[in-house]
Amino acid sequence: MDEVLNCLKIITNPKGENVGSLPRALKSLDEIAHNSSADLHPRLKHFLQNRSYEKALIWLNNGEPDKGTCGK
Predict the structure, then answer these.
(1) Which of 42, 36, 69 is nearest to 56 (CA)?
(2) What is the average per-residue pLDDT within 51-66?
(3) Are 32 and 38 in contact (CB under 8 A)?
């Protein structure tokens, strides 16, 4: 879960990150989200697959993200 959190932090606030950090974080989260063996909560997986990164970060920090257009 640390990898997911680190990637989400880079994506949601990329200022000051090393060159190339953002594309690596995006690629890593895509791989995690689409890996069938990854042990992800269904809601987190939904956020990651839909690239709702801010919602994922809010949810991981025990918040309740606003509902989007999918209503889930």
Answers:
(1) 42
(2) 92
(3) yes
